[in-house]
Specification:
The protein is of the alpha+beta class. The chain folds into 2 domains: about 15-55, no CATH class; about 60-155, no CATH class. The chain contains 6 helices and 4 strands. It has helices at about 15-40, 50-55, 85-90, 95, 100-105, 110-120; strands spanning about 60-70, 80, 125-140, 145-155. Strands 2-1-3-4 form a 4-stranded antiparallel beta sheet. It is elongated, with a radius of gyration of 27 Å. The termini are far apart.
């Protein structure tokens, strides 16, 4: 399209220095992304993919999930699964999973979840015992076999 003489087109031309620093930034970022994809891990983010999104589970093995089970004053001696949600315990599942080594070393930490639950849900039955359970669902050729292994990682009982 031809513009009449003297009409401003709005096109800005970059000088050599502006082009050079933009090219340098693109090259550095490209190098960081390539290195992160090849050898980086979650700590390199945003220059590497998050492992949870960039890997897959082996077709044969076990898929594990961590959860909590509780006993209540209404049903003593009976373990019942409880949701690990901020509305129920004050913490997300990931916050509990990230602290498994500390919880295993000091199961009394689970008492804080029971106290949080009592504050968040005052009309619910009080938790008198709580345990962290890791379940492994066995899969063969990417299909569950029906076998589920459960391991109690830590357990707390109210004093």
């Amino acid at each position: 399209m031809a513009y009449p003489v003297g009409v401003e087109t709005g096109v800005v031309r970059l000088g050599a220095a502006a082009k050079a620093w933009r090219a340098a930034v693109v090259l550095v970022l490209t190098g960081l992304f390539c290195a992160g994809s090849l050898v980086g891990d979650d700590h390199w983010w945003p220059f590497s993919p998050w492992r949870m999104f960039s890997t897959s589970q082996a077709p044969t093995g076990a898929v594990w999930s961590t959860g909590i089970e509780v006993q209540t004053a209404d049903a003593p001696g009976k373990w019942v699964p409880a949701p690990l949600t901020p509305g129920n315990t004050g913490l997300n599942r990931a916050e509990i999973e990230g602290r498994i080594p500390q919880i295993e070393a000091d199961p009394a930490r689970l008492g804080t979840l029971a106290r949080s639950h009592a504050e968040l849900r005052p009309t619910s039955a009080a938790w008198t015992a709580l345990r962290v359970v890791r379940r492994q669902v066995v899969v063969v050729d990417s299909r569950p076999t029906g076998e589920v292994r459960a391991e109690v990682l830590a357990q707390w009982t109210a004093p």
